[in-house]
Amino acid sequence: MPLIPEEPQIHESAQGPRATPASGRTAPTPRPVPGPRPAAPSRPGRPGPLRPAPPMQRTPREVAAAKPGPSGPAAPAAAAATPQIQLIPASVEGALDAAEEAVDLLLDSGRAPGDVLVITTGAQHPWADHELSFGEASYWAQHDAGDDVFYADAAVVSRAASRPVVVVAVNGGPSAAAAGALPLAHARAGALLIVCGDPQQINSLLGAGV
């Protein structure tokens, strides 16, 4: 189902080399899906996550009604397993920058770094280039540790494990790269899939199979 591009709201990020933002526009702010999630370690210079509110007191009748029966329908569980999809309009040159801004916002909102996987369809993220210079074993060991944002090329994303949030930067590469990366990214996103790139191209790919 085609997605309506969101209004740009993402703030300037200081992470790594940047590509030129698309058509002079900044990327809009992605909104992580609400709901329970693991507490994230506070980043240097930033406050830690807010403490959860105390649980609501419920009557025995309400508690009994909330308990699932032994043979209840499985539809709600299936619906919860479907990730929310958000589109951030960006040019090929600005897609990686938009993805970085999305990652910044996710971490600022309380997401743990290990919750996030970033996939590129064109040039690899500078972090991935740097880490691969030490060898694939070291690179994938960091993926397996799962304690930081992990950046992967679309060609190897089939090896990546699922994470709560997957961000895809459609920053060039063969047309088949994006077509293959989006279904894999969708399958690996537990709660939220963010796609940064040309809206017309992304909507056609999403409508075709995701």
Task: Describe the protein in words.
This protein has 210 residues and is an alpha/beta fold. Helices cover 33% and strands 15% of the residues. The chain has helices spanning 60-66, 75-80, 95-108, 126-132, 136-145, 175-188, 199-209; strands at 84-89, 116-120, 150-153, 163-169, 189-197. Strands 1-5-4-2-3 form a five-stranded parallel sheet, sandwiched between helices. Helix 6 (175-188) links the parallel strand 4 (163-169) and strand 5. The chain is globular and about 35 Å long. 33% of the residues are buried.
Quickly list its features.
five-stranded parallel β-sheet; single chain; 210 residues; 7 helices; alpha/beta; 5 strands
The gist of it:
The chain is an alpha/beta fold.
> Could you give the order of strands across the largest sheet?
1-5-4-2-3
Main structural class = alpha/beta
Kindly report the average pLDDT value: 75
Q: Helix tally?
A: 7
| Element-by-element helix/strand order | HHEHEHHEEHEH
Tell how many strands the DSSP assignment holds.
5
The largest pleated sheet is described as: 5 strands, parallel
**Fraction in beta strands:** 5-15%
List the helices and strands and how they pair.
Layout: H1 60-66, H2 75-80, E1 84-89, H3 95-108, E2 116-120, H4 126-132, H5 136-145, E3 150-153, E4 163-169, H6 175-188, E5 189-197, H7 199-209
Parallel strand pairs: 1-5, 2-3, 2-4, 4-5
